[in-house]
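EI: anyone free to look at a 706-residue chain?
SC: sure, send it
EI:
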Amino acid sequence: MRPRSVAVVGASPRPESFGFKAVRNLADFGFKGPIYPIHPSADEVLGIRCHKSLAGVPEPVDCAVIALPADKVLAALADCAAAGVRAAVVYASGFAEAGGHDRQLALQKLCEDTGMRVCGPNCIGIVNVRARTGMYAAPLPPTPEGELAIICQSGSVCILLNSVARLRFSYLVSSGNEVSVDIADYLDFFAQDEHTKVIGCYVESIRQPRRFAEAAAAARQAGKQVVVLKVGRSERGRAAVASHTGSLAGSEAVYADFFRRHGVIAVEDVDELIETLVLLTNLTSMPARGRVGFLNVSGGENSLICDVAERFGLALADLDGTTVDRLTARLPAFAAAQNPLDLGSVMFDPQAYRECVEIFGSDPNIGMLAFAHDYPIGLSQGSAAIYRTVADGVASVAPSLGKPVVAFSGASGGIHPGVTAPLEAAGVAVLHGLRPSLAAISRVMDYAAHLRNHSQSDAQPLTGSPDPKWLRRMQSGEPFSERESKQFLASHGVPQTAEVLATTAGEAIAVAEKLGYPVVLKIESPDVPHKSDVGGVKLDVGTAAAVASGFDEILSNVGRHVPDARINGILVEKMVVGGIEVIAGLSRQAPLGTAVLVGSGGVLTELIRDSALALAPFDRERAAALVGQTRLPARLRGYRGAPAADADALLDLLVLLSHIGSLYGDHIESLDLNPIAVLERGQGIQVLDALLIPVVTSKPDSGHYS
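SC: here you go
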């Protein structure tokens, strides 16, 4: 990251070659150390003397840029290692990303054997802006020095961000295939770098989530913000055929919870990423408390701001009574003292405008002041002059408010520099576009609240250890039946319905008489995960005759639909009447860990798709927040006169599931508890159906996080 000398292996006098561009970027960007072009026959590149090999370089080389095709990279790196070069940047593609897995494995082994640290392959390199070190394959625009470090697993996105003139950088890293140095390593480096304040990441995969979490924690403790755009967030549908939980637990929600837990700001697209980075790099402090206050000169646009803010869950501040009184006294009688505040009535009176901005911005309930106005680059000269006066009013007050102030234009596509100049001079971040601007403001407000309210992780220390008996059973690879799934849960303290396995109709009748009518009859088979789909369930069975006929009918239905299914018998259960039907379960989400899911349950689970999830383990507070993300709270409180349900028992179950998920996370692919009956308050819960699906192989993921 800070080499004192750089060799370019594959340097070339041909202007179109990467070797030429690598030398030119180092020279033109102002690298102060020696540059050693390596070429077997050329005398010089860009006036810099070439050496035939690294062995001929007169002094130690810190880092080598490998500007050669993929098939020549391994030999070149072996030469580097022999010459004592400890780090390299490898531009070439043609490794795992293009089917060259064996070549990448060989490169990885070389790094492990020699201790060499490699950026790439399949990357465009590293730029240390402060040290003017441009080990970069793409043309470098004038890159102003700042406090923003960028890590991109996509070279093209790195080029895009480097070309955004509004961003000022400390480092740019295109990490590529990350054969020996990955995003967690770079993040940890920037967490400790005194010249970096904000870290932006474009992420396709996180192979070491524990290391990433540790590096994110180090950044947070150093007062630095980490912003991540994670791509490939669509649902994986893991175990979707057999498991409701697996089909509901999409990777987008899992990554969102991972980032939330570790204080990382997650954004949705490149526009949000840019605006969030612009905002953070201009903030001198996080919002200490309160919500957002919006200023504008248009009532109509204020309505649009409210609409879009609601989409992002961005809460607007309620104005203090003193603020309302002072604004009412200063504004014309027809103007409303409210948030958002329309100051169109005083925009042509600079003194009144500044006073209203100061009164509004000083409200104790406002943690961030957002100045919303339109200043597209095509403003007429007259309009620009008017809007410049308005911007002057905000800029003159902003430094004295003692809280973050941000400005944004309602339209994307460029801003008028004459209008925004006073804002930028006052240290006010100027954002582009209503949607990405409000998204950025929302992300930062959420992050500030997270810092205030969650100084500790919501994960709880684990106690106990996995039961060896159940570990062996899971490692066998054989599917679980409902009865065995429930036995596993019962052994870990999860309440179950009373049930007995019957192998004949006579046994079923005897069990039903003992349990008491009504009962439920269910097929017991490891090969029938969704029993109701094949006629394998009978509800509300109230007589001995109905038990006998139901027993035979279930066997007939299953035999017709799943002729090869192994049948253990028929489960006879005491029927639970009433309660709120809920689904809960576990879904393995390698490499991040195991997620706990909760939502509206029953046969319509996947149709309704009302669910939320969080990574295990977690505490009761997080369990309550998880339930709060669904439609369950209103039903649990007692909807339309229904009695209140035992929400506390549901929270206890979720915490227990989160610990089961952590203990057995490498061995459970998914675990469905659907439905669960949440009974009246004080009566607990009953698991009515359960299905455990073990992993195909018992080998743990190397990056498993818990």
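EI: DSSP finds 23 helices and 29 strands in the chain.
SC: 👍
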